[in-house]
Amino acid sequence: MRLFLLTALTMCAFAANSILNRLAIDSGASDPTGFAIVRVLAGAVVLAALVLARGGRLPLRNRRRIIGAGSLTLYMIGFSIAYLTLDAGLGALILFGVVQITMFSVGALTGATLTARQVAGAGVALAGLAYVLWPTGAVQVDLAGAALMAAAGIGWALYSIAGRSETNPLEGTAANFIVALPVTALAMLAGGSAWQMSGAGYLLAVLSGAVTSGLGYALWYRVLPQLAPSVAAVVQLSVPVIAILGGVAFLGEIAGVRLIIGATLVLGGIALAVLRRHRG
Q: Could you give the dihedral angle defined by the CA atoms of residues 258, 259, 261 and 263, in that order, rounded to the nearest 10 degrees?
């Protein structure tokens, strides 16, 4: 039960990131470049302060930073730039679809056994997610944006896989954010976007970076060793649905029949993949 609650809390933190990002960008309080850089900076500062306050150390030169910080940078850059040209729902579908495929593939290559229930559950959950997020009307897909979001999905999948071997989740996450900061900042600023942020934009970016990203990612690294790669992949399909429900609760968005049906399929698929059948 404790693992379930911690995993659910982590998924809520990920969904809150989406809500904070949408709130900042859609309202004009922040541009994507400024939001991404301040988000990573805030996460690095808060996590480093927590590590040092606990008498810990920052393993910046550890070999794990190559995959940890590298994949985090790939995710941050791809995610932020892709949403300049992609519909929000389609972008989320590409992101989490690629995350799931990558984590399933790596799990299979490293000897993890996939059961029929896990494969079926993943399929049902992904179908439900597609039903909720697929744009209505004519679909215009920007190939560059789709490629960037796919790269972000690979980055996040690798970041999640790397977390399974992290010995200290808080120290490892702090080091990842610190190492990823300069690369992310240089890449985003090189894109030529103007820095336009209001006080509200800074506040939302700091909240996203320090709490829902920094602490949320540290919690994710804590629970990952206890989750099979396939389970970790499938449960993340709940994030867009939680984000949409959060939009209904906090942003005044409307929940239609399509959302209810899709959310039921996603949660049902996750339950099918994750819950074990008890034999009486």
A: 160
Phi, psi of 17 (to 5 degrees): -60, -45
The yes-or-no verdict on residue 280 having pLDDT over 60 is: no
Whether residue 207 contacts residue 19, with contact meaning beta carbons closer than 8 Å, is answered with: no
The domain segmentation of the chain, as residue ranges, is 2-274
Distance CA 38, CA 112 (A): 38
CA 234 – CA 118 distance, rounded (Å): 8
Q: What's the pLDDT tens digit per position in 36-63?
A: 999 999 999 999 999 999 999 999 988 8
58 and 170 Cβ atoms separated by less than 8 Å: no
Q: Which residue has the tokens 């808060």?
A: 46
Distances (CA, A) of 247 to 30, 254, 259: 18, 8, 12
